[in-house]
Specification:
By secondary structure, the protein is α+β, with helices and mostly antiparallel strands. It has 4 domains: 48-86 and 96-155, Thrombin, subunit H; 168-270, Thrombin, subunit H (Beta Barrel); 280-366, PDZ domain (Pdz3 Domain, Roll); 389-468, Pdz3 Domain. Helix content is 20%, strand content 33%. It has helices at residues 2-36, 42-48, 118-121, 257-270, 287-293, 311-315, 334-342, 416-420, 439-446; strands at residues 52-60, 68-69, 72-73, 97-108, 113-116, 124-130, 136-145, 150-155, 176-181, 189-200, 211-214, 226-229, 234-241, 252-256, 280-284, 301-306, 322-326, 329-330, 349-356, 359-366, 389-393, 406-411, 427-431, 434-435, 453-459, 462-468.
Length: 469
């Protein structure tokens, strides 16, 4: 027995010395590679990895009835025959906990600020952060924003390392990137790949999305970790993957650092994102829309309605305006405008460049915040079809919105016109930006029935722009 133990210890010792020799050899090879000028990510990672942390959370699970037997809740008449677990009405209560793991990035070493994902810390009872050197500290949640999936933590620790932000405007498809995180809770792991796409949306249509897509392997637990360029600058916070089995399929997504920086500013100041509101409904400029409006633009955010009393109305924005820049930054789509305005402070003055009737205009707007105003969302009326609506020339008593136009008597449920957003009681006053006083003018302005038609209607005191093929 003694011999077996001695032999086992001898085997372990030999394996240890062999492993140490292998490490020394690998280090020597690495040094030789550096001297020979061979490419390696090691020098950059030595600087960056201490800023990436592991996050563990504990969440309280909701409890219901306290009478169970073999997993089934007992009926009332049998409860007195079985031991009872105290419920929420008594001083003693047993609450089950669930634990989870994720990643985070130190962005401000001096103040101990750590960025992670909202979904990593959502509903957490406790949050602990494990640093690169093995220290574990408790974290304070400063704020979290579900719509961008960004959360901000604060930790108290010395000798922290942070990651500088990259200029995301310089990031291009094909750039090499490195993902750092804690996949499956096994410990810090580094994977590499390229930027596969920029400006990805559609994972959740209600969120503010402008994702960087990468094929660097991102798995469960990588959430909240860093996506860095080859200079070690942070370009995004890893947040999501597309996978059928929970593993990496080479389709990962990161929140870009410009959006992260805007959200962090809100969370550090207010503990939440108090989104600015412009008060418009918008849609994208497409070739068909540009043809219908007879505008020589291929990008921008087209205004399809202006909310009464909104910042947009006060600034003089009108239906059919195409917004192409905000504070000098190009607006190429409705998504651009929605993301930008949604992260502005309420009360902030901004400059807008727009096109109206083919002419460029500059307006100033003060971002608002009244509840109920639209920030900037896709136009639900831009759908298919111009069938199923009964129209007639406007007559006295039909509407107090206009003295001339085409009155919508009815719209058949489920018809293409209904899907386009037209409603009974609407008054059509323009077709393809031409004023129409009656059905005859409506038909003349409509022209080619195969062409997309831009129809301006009056509804409840507002002008709305609908697109119907």
């Amino acid at each position: 027995m003694s011999f077996e133990r001695t032999g086992k210890h001898l085997t372990i010792a030999i394996a240890f010395f062999l492993s140490m020799a292998a490490v020394s050899q690998a280090q020597a090879i690495s040094e030789e590679a550096k001297l020979a000028g061979l490419p390696s990510l090691a020098p950059m990672l030595e600087e960056v990895t201490p800023a990436v942390v592991s996050i563990r959370v504990a969440k309280t699970l909701p409890t219901t009835s306290r009478y169970f037997f073999n997993g089934e809740e007992l009926p009332e008449q049998l409860r007195r025959y079985f031991p009872r677990v105290p419920d929420s009405g008594e001083n003693y209560r047993q609450q089950p906990y669930a634990t989870g793991a994720g990643s985070g990035v130190i962005i401000d070493a001096e103040n101990g600020l750590v960025v992670t994902n909202h979904h990593v810390v959502d509903s957490a009872a406790t949050i602990s952060v494990q640093l690169h050197d093995g220290r574990t500290v408790e974290a304070e949640l400063l704020g979290s924003d579900a719509n961008t999936d960004v959360a901000l933590l604060r930790i108290e620790a010395s000798d922290l390392t942070d990651i500088p932000f990259a200029d995301v405007q310089t990031v291009a498809v094909g750039d090499y990137v490195v993902a750092i995180g804690n996949p499956f809770g096994i410990g810090q792991t580094v994977t590499s790949g390229i930027v596969s796409a920029l400006g990805r949306t559609g994972l959740n249509r209600n969120n503010y999305e402008d994702f960087i897509q990468t094929d660097a392997a991102i798995n469960m637990g990588n959430s909240g970790g860093a996506l860095v360029d080859l200079e070690g600058h942070l370009i995004g916070i890893n947040t999501a993957i597309i996978s059928g089995n929970g593993g990496s399929n080479g389709i990962g997504f990161a929140v870009p650092v410009d959006m992260v920086a805007s959200v962090v500013g809100h969370l550090e100041r207010d503990g939440e994102v108090r989104r600015g509101l412009l008060g418009v409904t918008i849609t994208d400029i497409t070739p068909q829309v540009a043809e219908a409006l007879e505008v020589d633009l291929d990008a921008g955010a087209l205004v399809t309605s202006v909310m009464s009393g909104s910042a947009a109305e006060a600034a003089g924005i009108e239906v059919s305006d195409v917004i192409v820049a905000l504070n000098g930054d190009a607006i190429t789509s409705s998504r651009d405008l929605r993301n930008t305005v949604g992260l502005l402070r309420r009360g902030e003055e901004v400059s807008l460049r727009l096109y109206r009737n083919g002419r460029a205009m500059d307006l100033n707007a003060v971002i608002g915040g009244p509840e109920g105003d639209a920030i900037a969302s896709s136009d639900a009326g831009s759908a298919t079809g111009f069938r199923g609506a009964q129209l007639r020339s406007l007559t006295a008593g039909d509407s107090d919105l206009s003295e001339e136009g085409v009155f919508v008597d009815s719209v058949q449920a489920g018809s293409p016109t209904a899907a386009a957003g037209l409603q009974a009681g609407d008054v059509i006053v323009e077709v393809n930006r031409r004023a129409v006083a009656d059905l005859e003018q409506f038909n003349n302005a409509l022209g080619d029935s195969e062409r997309l038609a831009a129809i301006t209607v009056l509804r409840e005191g507002r002008r709305l722009l609908l697109f119907v093929p």
